[in-house]
Amino acid sequence: MKKVLVINGNPKSDSLCKSMADQYATVAAKHHKVEQIHVGDLDFQMNLSAGYDKNTEMEPDLANFQKMIMWAEHVVIVSPVWWGTVPAKLKGLIDRTFLPNFAFKYTKGKAIPEKLLKGRTSELIITLDTPPFWYKFVKGNAVYKQLKKCTLDFTGIKNRTSTYFGPVINSKPESREVWLGKVSKLASNLK
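User: That's the sequence. What structure does it adopt?
Assistant: Structure tokens below.
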């Protein structure tokens, strides 16, 4: 039994990403301990106005998010692609919580920081309004590079899989049902 955190990165209250996050959580909860976070429900200042030069007081929702990351053994990020990458609120959540001495730690004399979130795994579930092959191979797959390479790898979280669904914009209900079935299968295959 794993401790699984499912993050819906779409700030909209009603979206395909929310349906996918709910579906994943429901199926995974049959065999694992599951918690969910919907980015749209969180109340925090997205901008890290001083960068990492000084500490910005952390709102309660952000402190809770950090506790959930520490609790989790497996993190599922469900996100749409907006302007090539994640929505601003999800990026703001990462900026404000994946902080030095929480997610990574610089050591004097070393160019590569210590990864403080090792031992966790993740998976990405991504929705797009373009065909996935077009986004990945023509547009450069920025969401994968940002989340997997620049955030998860950097902090020690090993991404196990990335699954893409699209195009969403003109999708029919039947297609969305098939996609939700695939999300169920991803959750039921979690070991």
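The chain has a mean pLDDT of 96.
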